[in-house]
Fold each of these.
Amino acid sequence: MWLDEETFKCVVKHAPLVSIDLIIENKNGEILLGRRKNRPAKELLFVPGGRVLKGETISEAFKRITFSELGKEILISSAKFMGIYEHFYDDSFFGSDITTHYVVLAYKLVNVANLNLPKLQHTEYLWLSTKEILDKEDVHPYTKAYFIGEIK
């Protein structure tokens, strides 16, 4: 269920949000990152993802988020669960006066074909190696955390 702006603002201010992050790896071992348009993490490179809505199962959210972030609906059974993470931000979608706390379910997808990457949440997309992700200053530390210890 989508919330009106005032209700959502109250939730962000007083409760953690549950989200799904998508670690998309191509056949060359590169990972898809997008440059975020919105707070938090605005203008930084981040893996695609989105919030789980109230009343929505994780599987339903996964299909909706893959469609909205990748332009292709994908079943959760195609993904490997990578773990639970927490992300804390000093700002939020609403500005710098409200912090954001996410409980993140990270999932990895490999060799997903026919992506139709929308520009709703990201200004650009890049495919980067693990080393590039860890070396680039404009990759958000929470994204880097998915790859620490994975340089081949």
Amino acid sequence: MTAATLDAVLNSYVGNGGNGRRAAIVATIHQLAQAAVKVRNTINQGALGRAFAGSRGANPDGDVQKDLDVFADDIFLDAMRHAPVGLYASEELEQPVLLDKDADLAIAIDPLDGSSNIDTNVSIGTIFSLLPATGVPDENPAASFLQAGTNLLGAGFFIYGPQLALVLSLGSGTHVFVQSARLGTFVQAYESRIVPARAHEFAINAANYRHWDEAVRLYVDDCLKGTEGPRERDFNMRWIASLVADCYRILMRGGVFLYPGDTRRGYANGRLRLVYEANPIAYLIEQAGGAATDTVERILEIQPQSLHQRVPLVFGSAREVARIARYHNDPSSIGERSPLFGHRGLFRA
């Protein structure tokens, strides 16, 4: 059977009725895909390109801003000027940009996730989410982006790796498309990915061990004890420091990702942005049968208080995410940690 193209899948999503909002979403995704190809072509030039790994200070939230961050932001902003999008909010911009006060879509975007990896040839990406425009956009453009993630109309990310891939959900599963140079379009590679419920890998930056709270340390300690420990199985540890790359791996083979808050200055609420990163990733993972929390609470139910709000993030295999929440809420309820049950607890995850 011939794999479906992105165009075919999106046409099916719109349906014969030509639903207005759905048609606008499809037109927006087409523009995003074209922009991603332009960004990928620039990335492929590597250090030979003009917009590569140079730095230019910090973005509005204090992170180091690379030349390629700004280049990607310009490419996607220009693409959205040709899409039925009313508002554009970017990690690289202090305030949203009003594009069309009458359009009913808003897009939140991290134009280049993982940009600290640009000059090390590690996969980086673009993360986006689509929201309904709300209120009076020309008077309060930020309002549309301060909605809980449960209001998302769709989300996705492009990953610039060995293949240019698009991970996309419009509310009916999470699908993966790969750009075909031969066909000049994106082709569906995986339909309705399901994150395996049982995890054998975890991703975390272990260098911050001394800064974590006790619950995170206990969880990682139990994983590292392997077959001799309370989990009675071996785990592999992964950490790419590229959110899209870690997420793609989990979608392909399961596992769990942790970026908790810690005791370092400025890290109490983690470092990932709720609007630009955590919400779209959580949406994609949930649509694939996984779960995403701030270690305890469901990410998509958090009401953003500010445009660039940071949040701890745990996502991946649903049972593992739930277990991490139990480590935070009540570790004594985890059977195999209880002296009463020893290694073989009654409540094994």
Amino acid sequence: MPTSQDHLAAALLPLVGGPANVTSVAHCMTRLRLGLADRSRVDEEALRAVPGVLGLVDDETYQIVLGPGVVGPVAAEFEELTAATQLARRGAELREARRQRNATPVKSLLRRVANVFVPLIPALVGCGVLAGLNGLLVNLGWLTGLTPALTAVASGFMALIAVFVGYGTAKEFGGTPVLGGAVAAVVVHPGVVKVTAFGVALSPGQGGVLGALAAALLATYVEKWCRTWVPPTLDVLVTPTLTVLVSGLATLYGLMYAAGAVSSAVGTAANWLLATTGPAAGLVLGGLFLPLVMLGLHQALIPIHTTLIEQQGYTVLLPLLAMAGAGQVGAAIAVYVRLRHDPSIRTTIRSALPAGLLGVGEPLIYGVSLPLGRPFLTACAGGAAGGAFVGFFALLGDRVGTTAIGPSGWALFPLLSGNRNPALTAAIYAGGLLTGYTVGFLTTYAFGLTAGVRKPEQSG
């Protein structure tokens, strides 16, 4: 059994239930005072047998008597050993608090709408990469015999995305998925050109994913209504027929027209926003995206992204929002550099940083920046700066978009698209990332850590 002060803490920790059982660490002149989640996990017999342990006191805190001159270094080592677990516990508490705050009707609805689109992301990513590759081949004039086939492969999913949205909507809201898909298919059927609504001939795809979402949601409620009065013997015949008929006609003579107007407004608003207020729009979107994620409100953006991709071939909003991840990475690197005395936090950052660079920010958010407090705010500053950088070029007419949603960070490069050549689009996005990294790092290094967190470093 180790007896040196450097190793005594490591010997004691498993005997009090391990780091997950330790909620607080303090000491007086002679005693190591521990807050424990479950005192039944303490092995008192083994503790008393550890050389250097002079006694045990089970009081408001669990106290291990070590003696003067010993308890201070042991307590410091004990804090280092448990810091990572305590930080993780704090992150878990924050996640749970966020989950409870998000349990509102509006946020629950947004979450359910997001659940409709999230399963579509793999197809959006795959088709988006192929579309980008095909566009590059067309621009270069290479493999001209293959590009028509690539066009068909990359575009097929987007041509029928309304059907998938309808299927997922009915499934999420408790209807029969295939009926939701059947009604949503009306939106993309070529025959709608022969239908006139509000004095205007409809066009295939009018209303897009928003129209499909509304159509399938209506179908779900019609189906549930039918099941309340249709006799069981007729249910298999009457309910599907009425569901498709009522919802389909409502889609043709109302929903497609209304959803088309909303979809057009979304595209117009996004283009206007960047063309007239580029840096300001980028600053706000990049700076506020992390808080939106914390509040669960980012889910409202998924249908907007999908609508823009369907309309324009890419969404100009995602690259701006992706800058929030860059600010988070810069902030984490600054914490890593500043807290050289804290190996547990540095280990957490080393583990989470590769995922952060690829756009998966939750490990850094909940494992580092949010529990520490200030680095979350300075990460937002980095995201705002990166968003302003990309927005500035949008103001100049160089729009940067992505052909799919889901990935972020470096993983977004294969999905980049825009109204200029691919090299310039990639360079602008890379410049935004570098700006986010830099500002996130500098603001966190200068302002992101309290004196209490930095104290061990300063005293060394």
Amino acid sequence: MLLSVIIPVYNSERTILPLVECLVDELAAYPFEIVLVNDGSRDASEAICESLVQLYQPVQFISLRKNFGEFQAVMCGLNHARGEFCVIIDDDFQNPPQEIIKLLREAQRGGYDVVYSQYMKKRHAWFRNWGSWLVNRLTTWLLKKPSDLYLSSFKLLRREVVQEIIRYKGPYPYLDGLIFQVTRNVGRVVVTHEKRREGGSNYTVKRLISLFLTIFFGYSVQPLRLLTLTGMGLMAFSFLAGCAEIIGSLLRTHLPETDHLVWLSICLGAGVQLFGMGVLGEYVGRMFMMQSGLPQYIVKSEHFNHDRKPERVRANVSSRA
């Protein structure tokens, strides 16, 4: 199996059938499979995906018990994928299926572990573009990624990277964060970005905030270290300011003013508290990321055309086929 195309499906009853048909035509020359993951859709997407399994031999379909989120659905797809390369593509046709071959050829040519798509012209709404810019700046700081690399959802991953990524069993996966914990051998290729064919974007303020918090607290201890450094800076500032106040008072032969001492004492106390919170948060944050027992996703049903059954290596995932 050369290619596994993973598609998180959410309320895409009008696009998922033509998308799969297009993928089957475009990838006919390659050994491939299509992994559909229904993330708790509220329309007829589940029934359509079930019919696609019967229509096309390369299609396998997993339906989740409820809406867990795009990254959780992708992680489910990666756990079921068998290909040497795994491609993640949206269900709305904004990423044309024919562009998959560009990502594959770039990975094979450059020996890259991951290849991201770069858009010549983005067709997202202004709000989503602004959110993407904010996430890009945040991940550059926290994940140490190249500042000019756009972390698009349309990307290709080599099998060895996928095997490392799916070892993460926590409830809040962020795929790009996991990628940069595994490898820095990342390429990029320019692709076409089309307008959404049906419906509106699921990218909301709530989703942006959730993504921001997941990145900020789940994949780096930089925020905690910033808090610690802030506390240390306040302690140093209050100490030096206090010394300057005392020396100035001695030179002027009178005691320092009371309000200055009170202000410096408050500053020193705040610095000590922030420093302590930073050190404590360092331990609590690491323990939380390692010990959280919430399920990443819960499988409702699985549908396959091939004889191979999915390996039951996902200890934190409940399934009911």
